[in-house]
Amino acid sequence: MIQSIIGIAFDCPNANELADFYVKLTGWNKEISSGAFAALRTPEGILLVFQTVEDYVPPVWPWEKGKQQQMAHIDFYVDDLADAEENAIKCGARKAEVQYYDTSTVMLDPTGHPFCLSTVK
User: CA torsion, points 89, 91, 96, 97, in degrees to nearest 10?
Assistant: First the structure.
């Protein structure tokens, strides 16, 4: 039986560059760093793994028929949404043009993966 999640992997054009973005965004440490893979660990012990994929195609947000769709995204809990948005942008993210809720903000990492900053757990 499955007991827990040990990691979540994201495809990208450069594993170490994307891992470095998430290190800046979260303050967590990078534990794995190689040419093809990089990873950082959450305070809960889950590895965020990034793997270099040749000819990577970023997802489109929001979804569009016939376009590359997102496979997964991360939701981060934050105390202050405006501060978290500002920090994410300083780290290299951009705010998605389409937003759905007042309690969360959809951001896009440097390779196009959406992630949410949310004040609701």
Answer: 30
